[in-house]
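Hi V.,

Quick status before I head out on leave. The structure for the redesign project is tokenized and pasted below; the design run finished overnight.
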């Protein structure tokens, strides 16, 4: 970036739908490091190596890159999107965004306000009033919204400032660092627009981020070329208290706006049910204190501020697609699955599967001889079983004369009358046709009122809206269990490596390495490697006499689906 800082483009959103001679564009030209020129239609363009690129073209390239990234992680190529835009966007700016999305091969389902997307990402308030405070690098906005039980969100009032964002805070820090350089080294670098000032700008942004979690930070730039005598190692320390003093004027402007929006809405603190923060600048402690002082509420922590609008837009897209779908009476309206441990839901038969149908799932469990395990069957879409309908439970038992990891096969069969027949057997038994292999057989009826369209839509919406909160919980649960399995397998290998066959020991070592490496990957891969490690562990334990078996680690099958 330091070699060609003029090739790095940022804040293109501020240029889209504008004219070159507008004051905001002229001001932007004085602040950015890339070249802005006038296009053939009077619009501002970016000049890169003598070529002009319009804001729509650059936005289209960004969206196309995002589309390609998403396609790497999904199994279909349908590119329907919901895009959230700032509150201050004009009709022309929105049209340019839609044009850029179309050029990128995207089908726009809806453009929504950023504050609406943020409100969707939280959704702890089913019927009430929420405040959304959003502040990113270029602008900030405050909105008061009413949320109704059917997830309709109405903007009561909102205000925004497209000229006040995190960049202004960075500029204050850069000016402070320049003053310190003058004081320490008697060199004024204001005239260097590119190399040195860009280095300072990036360092200032990093310092601002650190000051959100620490009371002091030292800006360190080795070999900083500030004089003809040669580079120096630049080290400047700034405290959070000093930073807050420097930006006190900006903070004051934000506080006044927060106070005025309550007055405009004719509301008081007691009328607000929740405060939602969005954007990286919402992590600044001084800003958080201002929000608490004005609105009198602790901010929602369900969603990271940087992710709130993205998650809200994705949820809105899912809800719109759900509304478009027509449910056939010969399809299962909601998924049927099991409690896979710690209250998480594992789908066995996905929703929209035609009936009749039958699916089988393996469930590993640690049981002593004769010990029973109760497996509950659920109907719904929520990540947590407590939010789904419990159809009943089936009891399985360890019929082997040893303790350890026992694999059960659970078969769910649904007929045209929506009767769910559940059978279970010991998957480790070789004779699959023997009658005594089948340990349990139960049947449950899915009632007609539980399959009605309104109840199904309500269940799907709640599952979507709660996904962001419970997904992190499920992921943490899965990773904790995988660590437990890894430690247990490692203990067995360490204690019995001289007694076990060499090939089994090597399988265990390979399983441990694969499981360890999968911690940095996605949850589905981690789940697969964990189940394989459990299978290897079961083989190892079969060589150990029952009286000497290693103690139980209590591992049950966990949901790795997202």
């Amino acid at each position: 970036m330091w070699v060609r800082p003029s090739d790095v483009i940022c804040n293109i959103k501020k240029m889209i739908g504008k004219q070159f001679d507008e004051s905001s564009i002229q001001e932007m030209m004085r602040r950015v490091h890339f070249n802005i020129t006038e296009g053939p239609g009077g619009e501002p363009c970016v000049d890169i190596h003598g070529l002009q690129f319009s804001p729509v073209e650059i936005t289209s390239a960004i969206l196309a890159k995002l589309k390609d990234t998403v396609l790497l992680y999904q199994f279909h190529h349908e590119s329907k999107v919901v895009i959230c835009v700032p509150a201050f966007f004009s009709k022309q700016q929105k049209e340019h965004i839609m044009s850029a999305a179309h050029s990128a091969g995207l089908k726009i389902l809806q453009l929504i306000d950023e504050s609406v997307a943020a409100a969707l990402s939280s959704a702890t308030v089913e019927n009430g009033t929420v405040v959304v405070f959003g502040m990113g690098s270029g602008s900030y906005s405050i909105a008061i919204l009413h949320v109704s039980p059917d997830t309709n969100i109405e903007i009561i009032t909102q205000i925004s400032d497209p000229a006040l964002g995190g960049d202004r805070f960075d500029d204050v820090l850069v000016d402070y660092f320049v003053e310190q350089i003058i004081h320490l080294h008697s060199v004024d670098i204001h005239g260097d627009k590119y190399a040195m000032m860009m280095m300072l700008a990036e360092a200032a942004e990093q310092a601002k981020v650190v000051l959100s979690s620490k009371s002091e930070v030292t800006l360190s730039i080795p070999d900083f070329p500030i004089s003809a005598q040669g580079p120096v190692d630049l080290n400047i320390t700034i405290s959070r208290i000093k930073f807050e003093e420097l930006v006190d004027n900006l903070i004051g402007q934000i506080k006044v706006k927060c106070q005025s929006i309550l007055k405009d809405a004719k509301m008081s603190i007691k009328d607000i049910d929740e405060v939602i923060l969005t954007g990286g600048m919402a992590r600044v402690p001084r800003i958080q204190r201002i929000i608490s002082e004005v609105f009198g509420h602790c901010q929602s922590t369900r969603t990271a501020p940087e992710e709130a609008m993205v998650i809200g837009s994705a949820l809105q897209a899912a809800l719109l697609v759900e509304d478009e779908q027509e449910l056939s009476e010969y399809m299962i309206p909601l998924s049927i699955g099991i409690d896979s441990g710690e209250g998480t839901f594992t789908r066995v038969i996905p929703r929209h599967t035609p009936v009749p149908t039958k699916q089988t799932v393996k469930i590993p469990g640690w049981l002593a001889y004769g010990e029973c395990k109760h497996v509950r069957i659920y109907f719904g879409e929520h990540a947590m079983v407590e939010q789904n309908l419990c159809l009943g439970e089936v009891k399985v038992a360890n019929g082997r004369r040893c303790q350890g990891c026992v694999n059960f096969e659970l078969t769910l069969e649904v007929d045209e009358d929506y009767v769910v027949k559940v059978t279970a057997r010991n998957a480790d038994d070789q004779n699959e046709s023997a009658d005594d292999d089948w340990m349990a057989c139960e049947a449950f009826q899915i009632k007609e009122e539980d399959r009605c369209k309104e109840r199904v839509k309500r269940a799907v919406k709640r599952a979507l809206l709660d996904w962001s909160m419970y997904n992190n919980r499920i992921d943490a649960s899965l990773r904790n269990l995988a660590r437990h399995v890894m430690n247990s397998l490692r203990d067995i290998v360490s204690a019995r490596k001289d007694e076990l066959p060499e090939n089994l020991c090597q399988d265990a070592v390979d399983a441990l390495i694969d499981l360890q490496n999968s911690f940095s990957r996605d949850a589905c891969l981690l789940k697969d490697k964990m189940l394989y490690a459990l299978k290897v562990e079961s083989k190892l334990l079969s060589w150990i006499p029952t009286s000497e078996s290693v103690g139980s680690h209590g591992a049950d099958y966990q949901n790795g689906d997202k």
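Above is the designed sequence. The first helix runs from residue 23 to 31.

G. will cover questions while I'm gone.

Best,
W.
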